């Protein structure tokens, strides 16, 4: 039995097609504008459903919200983030009814550095952000201008 809305799968009972939130997947494109190839989809699967994950997308991962899935004989339960190697063909089978987020896209143009809430391709930019935070140079959150969270030590 085939699936609808341009995605291919085998199933024991009807599934909702993946809801593409950003980017493109399974023949669908979200209306959200992105600056690079992006993959972000909400997927609900009935037990027994099989979902292939496109190997052409450079960076791919699945976050399991609920249920259990099988990938090549390994089972994974809710609360897991599964990150896949580029180019590996991945097929996911729902062991039970499952909901997951499929995410990924094009690789970044270089390494990123992360410290607290700051992410940058340059370490010195993170140091500048720390100084700017201490001096309250960031805009406040609308409706929450009374609380200031200090920079972690």
Descriptive overview:
The protein is mostly beta strands and 153 residues long. The protein folds into two domains: 87 residues, Jelly Rolls (Sandwich); 44 residues, no CATH class. The protein is 8% helix and 39% strand. A six-stranded antiparallel beta sheet has the order 2-1-3-10-5-8, with no helix packed on it. It has a four-stranded antiparallel beta sheet with strand order 4-9-6-7, with no helix packed on it. Strands 11-12 form a two-stranded antiparallel sheet. The longest helix is centred in the last third of the chain and has 12 residues. The protein is elongated and about 55 Å long. The N terminus is likely disordered.
User: Strand share of the residues?
Assistant: 35-45%
> Uncertain segments of ≥5 residues (pLDDT<50)?
1-13
- CATH topology title of the largest domain: Jelly Rolls
* Sheet with most strands: strand arrangement: 2-1-3-10-5-8
Number of helices: 1
The number of E-state strands comes to 12
**Rg from alpha-carbon coordinates:** 20 Å
User: How much helix, percentage-wise, in residues?
Assistant: under 10%
Q: In sequence order, what are the helices and strands, one letter per element?
A: EEEEEEEEEEEEH
Q: Averaging pLDDT over every residue, what do you get?
A: 88
CATH superfamily of the largest domain: Jelly Rolls
Identify the CATH class of the largest domain. Answer: Mainly Beta
Please tell me what the overall shape is: elongated
Query: Given the helix and strand composition, which structural class is it?
Result: mainly beta
Q: Which sheet architecture does the biggest sheet show?
A: 6 strands, antiparallel
Measured between the Cα atoms of the first and last residue, the distance is 57 Å
CATH architecture title of the largest domain:
Sandwich
Number of domains: 2
């Amino acid at each position: 039995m085939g699936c609808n809305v341009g995605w291919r799968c085998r199933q024991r009972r009807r599934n909702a097609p993946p809801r593409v939130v950003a980017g493109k997947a399974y023949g669908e494109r979200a209306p959200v504008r992105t600056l690079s190839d992006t993959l972000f989809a909400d997927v609900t699967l009935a037990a027994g459903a099989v979902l292939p994950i496109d190997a052409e997308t450079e960076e791919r991962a699945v976050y399991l919200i609920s249920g259990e899935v099988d990938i090549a004989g390994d089972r994974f339960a809710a609360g897991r983030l599964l990150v896949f190697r580029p180019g590996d063909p991945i097929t996911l089978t729902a062991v039970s009814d499952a909901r997951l987020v499929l995410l990924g896209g094009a690789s970044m143009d270089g390494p990123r550095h992360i410290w607290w809430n700051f992410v940058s391709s340059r370490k010195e930019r993170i140091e500048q952000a720390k100084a700017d935070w201490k001096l309250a140079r960031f805009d406040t959150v609308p409706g929450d201008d009374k609380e200031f969270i200090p920079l972690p030590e």
